[in-house]
Structures are given as C-alpha cells and as structure tokens.
Write a structure and sequence with these properties.
Layout lengths: L3 E2 L9 H9 L19 H18 L5 E6 L2 H13 L7 E6 L2 H10 L4 E7 L4 E3 L2 E3 L20 E4 L1 E2 L4 E2 L16 E4 L16 E5 L10 E6 L16 H6 L9 H16 L2 H21 L4 E2 L11 E6 L5 H10 L2 E2 L10 E4 L6 H18 L1
Parallel strand pairs: 1-15, 3-4, 3-7, 7-10, 10-11
Antiparallel strand pairs: 2-12, 5-6, 8-9, 11-12, 13-14, 14-16
Helix pairs in contact: 1-6, 2-6, 3-4, 7-9
This protein binds 4'-deoxy-4'-aminopyridoxal-5'-phosphate.
4'-deoxy-4'-aminopyridoxal-5'-phosphate (PMP) binds next to helix 3.
GO molecular function, one term: O-phospho-L-serine:2-oxoglutarate aminotransferase activity
Subunit structure: Homodimer.
Family: Belongs to the class-V pyridoxal-phosphate-dependent aminotransferase family. SerC subfamily.
Length: 375
C-alpha cells in the first residue's frame, strides 16, 4: 500500500490517474506516441485539450460567457498577469486586495508593481471574535468591513490560504457591498474543484493545478469575457488574456502533459460523482479531523472555526518539543509530509480530493496513539 500523503502541493493524485498515465505513457490510445511527444496542434492532443476544457466547464458549471484558459507560470505568475490584464480597465490603474495570509499578501505585493494596489481589509492583527482572541491571519475580515473603491478595476481575495489554513468561501455579492462594477477575483489555487464555484459572485477565478487538479505546470483561469481585452501595453503577449482566449489556450505551446493529467483528474472527479460529491466527502473529512483536534487537550487548532479550511488543517502539539518525534513516527506509520510551513510552525495536514477519509482516519488513529503515549 502507498503511504498517505498530506503534502500541501504538489500533492497526492488519485492512484487511478497515475496508473492510467503509466499505462498510456509510451503509446497513447494506440497512436504510437506518448502525449509528451505529440504536437499540440495535432488531432490527438486537440482532442485531449478539448475534452479537458469541456470536462472542467461541466464540473464547475462554468457559464458560457466565461472563458476557460490553461496557462503557464503558476498562481505566482498569475498574480502579475492579473493586474497586467485587468488594472487598465477603466483607466484608473487601481485594484483592491483583501489580505488574509501569505498568499494574498504575495498577490498584493506583486500587483503594486503595476499600479495602485490598496488594502481593502486585512486579518493581519489579532481580533476578538465571539469573545475569543484570534491570532493574526487566523480569521477573515467580514465583507461589510472591506473598503472597496468604486473605481477599482477589481477586488482580489484568496479563497483558501494554503499555509494558514483559512478558507473563505462565502463570497459576497459585490452589488450588495455597494460596488456592482468592481469584479471579484479569487485565487482559488488550493480549494479549486473541492467545492462548487458561484460564478454569480466571482468574475475571475484562477488556480494552479498542483493541489486538486493535476501536476504543477498548468494554471487554470476562468474569466468573464468582458474582463478580457484590456491588457496594459507592457503585458507579455503570451500572458494577454485576449491572445490566450482568442487562440483557445494555444497561442503558444501549452503545458501539454500537465493538461493531459489534469484532464484525467477531471474524468476521475466525474466518476466520483462530480464536485458536489467531493465537497460532501471534504466536509466529512475535515469535520472528523477538526472534531478530533477540538476534543483533545494535546493538540490545538488555531484558525477560527468559521473559516477553517477543508483542505489544509494546520495544527500544533501543545508541547512543541515533541514535534520532531511526532513527524518521525508519523512517517514510520506511513503518514507523509505533515510538517507545517516554516512561517506557521507545527503541523499541517492537507487533505485534498485525492486523500480519502481512510487517510484522515489513519492520521487521527496515529494522533490518538501518539497522545496516549505522551499525554
Ligand atoms: N496561491 C496559493 C493559494 C497557493 O497555495 C500557491 C502555492 N502553494 C500559490 C498561490 C503559488 O503557486 P505557484 O507556486 O504555482 O506559483
């Protein structure tokens, strides 16, 4: 049996997908070529790309007036590609950012290179919520408190802070916040395909693949078409949404193998019953883990319960001197990559789509046993 892999990304992929890719590695569907060896404009790869795009559209019920683009550069490049494409819309060169952790801070910093990127709200200070003091970056600012400029080209937030384990998925309607003309943009990298997306709220969603959707190397951008075609003159042509959308993600050579694997993952998700079925499983998995953490005096989860991530659960041993022993024994028990990000410390269990309840239960059993021996 393979070990349970709790990596935050690149992370576990469904075994069925890996096995299919292995079986097709040297000869895809009898054509005598590996997908890696095919022209991106040949009929075989065109079929792979079209199916991947259609399956993604179907899985997320992407509206017809949204483009589905496959790009390169990861979410980090997208942090620049986004302002380069959107900030010039309306001419104000302004955008507003909600800061909720490391990833949204990086997005904001990158955007400052291109224009006036302001902070609409931040959870970077401690806050008292429901009578309890929350540490910085363990809560999410209420939308009613966001300071959004009416002439901002967009408002950006990170839907799931992979490092902090803060997930904000009850996206507000920008009209009810008094800024109907400001499109909501979401970095959904680490909860993409783990739950449905409400496109009546989000005008543009982007996500690197290497958590729930496939290997690193492809970024998915789902963008309302009226946001396309406003790139700043300095925007590289390969990163201009008008070029990428206009050429159906074939403006230049796309990351063909990563798209192929993502396509296999999309088909796997369909076989699981789609995104709604995975969401149900993700709720059950995360609830089991957080319920165990909350019921224990030995471990501690610090994120406010309302915004705890279903995908990434950071947790701490109250006696941090046991961290090394915990990680070594976890690895011997087949529970891999549980070390928390260095900026947060402690542990982090990433429990993406491909990590089943069985894996979460194996983790909880190990933690119980570790607690029994050291508690
Ligand atoms: N945003 C989020 C939420 C992420 O989790 C990550 C990667 N872990 C990134 C952006 C950056 O992605 P990449 O390294 O692919 O550029």
């Amino acid at each position: 049996m393979r070990p349970w892999n709790f990596s935050a990304g690149p992370s576990a992929l469904p075994l069925e997908v890996l096995q299919q890719a292995a079986a097709e590695m040297t000869d895809w569907h009898g054509c005598g070529m590996s997908v890696m060896e095919m022209s991106h404009r040949g009929k075989q790869f065109m079929q792979i790309a079209q199916e991947a795009q259609a399956d993604l559209r179907e899985l997320l019920a992407v509206p017809d007036d949204y483009s589905v683009m496959f790009m390169q550069g990861g979410a980090t490049a997208e942090n620049a590609i986004l302002p380069l494409n959107l900030m010039g819309r309306g001419g104000a060169l302004k955008a507003d950012y909600v800061l909720s952790g490391i990833w949204s801070n990086k997005s904001h910093k990158e955007a400052q290179r291109y224009g006036d990127a302001a902070v609409a709200a931040s959870s970077g200070a401690a806050a008292v919520i429901d009578g309890v003091t929350q540490d910085p970056w363990t809560w999410f600012p209420e939308p009613e408190q966001w300071r959004i400029r009416a002439d901002a080209a967009y408002l950006h937030l990170c839907g799931n802070e992979t490092i902090g384990g803060v997930e904000f998925a009850t996206w507000p309607d920008m009209a009810t916040l008094g800024v109907p003309n400001v499109p909501l943009v979401v970095d959904a990298s680490s909860h993409f395909l783990s739950r449905p997306i409400d496109f009546s709220k989000a005008a543009l969603v982007y996500a690197g693949a290497q958590k729930n959707a496939g290997p690193a190397g492809v970024t998915m951008v789902l963008a309302r078409r009226d946001l396309i075609g406003h790139a700043l003159p300095a925007c590289p042509s390969a990163f201009d949404y008008a070029n990428v959308d206009g050429a159906n993600s074939m403006f230049n050579t796309p990351p063909t193998y990563a798209m192929y694997i993502a396509g296999l993952v999309f088909k796997w998700i369909k076989r699981q019953g789609g995104v709604a079925a995975l969401e149900k499983a993700n709720i059950a998995k995360s609830q089991a883990l957080y319920a165990y953490l909350d019921g224990s005096d030995f471990y501690l989860a610090r994120v406010h319960p309302k915004v705890r991530s279903r995908m990434n659960a950071p947790f701490f041993l109250r006696d941090e001197s046991l961290n090394g022993e915990f990680l070594a024994q976890a690895e011997s028990a087949g529970l891999m990559q549980l070390k928390g990000h260095k900026s947060v410390g402690g542990m982090r269990a990433s429990i993406y789509n491909a990590l089943p309840m069985e894996g979460v239960q194996a983790l909880i059993s190990f933690m119980q046993e570790f607690e029994r021996r050291h508690g």
